[in-house]
């Protein structure tokens, strides 16, 4: 369900004594008492909508409020469709990764980067591998050099617990 961020006061909700009135086709009708403005609105079967409450003389417009709200929600949906969300894809490897596996993971990372996502490459150390974190760092540096033409390093190799990771983002 879509909602307009700000509900505009309409018809009886307007508390001003006099308002600057704008007709449904955009023509300025001048400053009129609220009673006359409401009469005009009911006469034309439209709503009197307060569009600018902070002006010296509040500004009201004659319009079909239901139609206006519908069009606003439609515009909101369109704006949401055009947004591109950026995800972080994770690739897990071990410090003693084989060449073929490395190439396969690098190819996937390249694909993720081309799609506009960030890539987090995690080296997981198990058992005694934790004593030799240099190997993990070397593998991560290999990834960086393999993908340097398309990516930029957002976070340098960092050890957290039993994992070491880097984050790559697409070059601008």
Description:
This protein has 172 residues and is α/β, with parallel strands linked by helices. It is 34% helix and 31% strand. It has helices spanning 34-43, 65-82, 99-114, 133-146, and strands at residues 18-22, 28-33, 47-52, 59-63, 88-93, 118-124, 151-160, 163-170. It has a four-stranded mixed beta sheet with strand order 2-1-4-3. Strands 5-6-8-7 form a four-stranded mixed beta sheet, covered by helices on one side. A hairpin with a 2-residue loop joins strand 7 (151-160) and strand 8. The longest helix is centred in the middle third of the chain and has 18 residues, at 65-82. It starts with 17 loop residues before the first strand and ends with a strand. The relative contact order is 0.11.
Quick synopsis:
The strands form two sheets. Strands 2-1-4-3 form a four-stranded mixed sheet. A four-stranded mixed sheet has the order 5-6-8-7, with helices on one face. 34% of the residues lie in helices and 31% in strands.
H/E series, N to C? Answer: EEHEEHEHEHEE
Task: Please compute the radius of gyration using only Cα atoms.
Answer: 30 Å
Report the helical percentage: 25-40%
Principal-axis shape equals rod-shaped
Number of strands: 8
Unreliable segments (pLDDT under 50, ≥5 consecutive)?
Answer: none
Tell me the span between the first and last alpha carbons.
Answer: 35 Å
Quickly give the structural class.
Answer: alpha/beta
Approximately what portion of the residues adopt beta-strand conformation? 25-35%
Helical run tally: 4
Give the overall pLDDT as a whole number.
86
Q: Biggest sheet, open or closed, and with what strands and sense?
A: 4 strands, mixed
Looking at the chains present, what oligomeric state does this protein adopt?
single chain
Strand order of the largest sheet: 2-1-4-3
């Amino acid at each position: 369900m879509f909602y307009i961020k700000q509900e505009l006061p309409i018809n009886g909700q307007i508390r001003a004594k006099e308002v600057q009135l704008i007709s449904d086709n955009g023509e300025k009708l001048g400053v009129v008492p609220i009673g006359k403005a409401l009469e005009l609105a009911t006469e034309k079967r439209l709503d009197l909508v307060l569009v600018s409450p902070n002006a010296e003389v509040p500004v009201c417009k004659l319009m079909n409020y239901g139609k206006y709200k519908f069009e606003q929600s439609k515009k909101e949906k369109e704006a949401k469709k055009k947004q591109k969300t950026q995800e972080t894809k994770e690739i897990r490897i071990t410090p003693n990764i084989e060449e073929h596996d490395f190439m396969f993971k690098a190819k996937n990372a390249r694909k993720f980067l081309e799609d506009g996502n960030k890539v987090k490459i995690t080296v997981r150390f198990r058992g005694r591998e934790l004593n030799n974190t240099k190997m993990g760092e070397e593998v991560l540096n290999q990834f960086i050099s393999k993908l340097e033409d398309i990516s930029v390093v957002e976070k340098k190799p960092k050890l957290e617990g039993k994992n070491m990771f880097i984050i790559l983002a697409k070059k601008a």
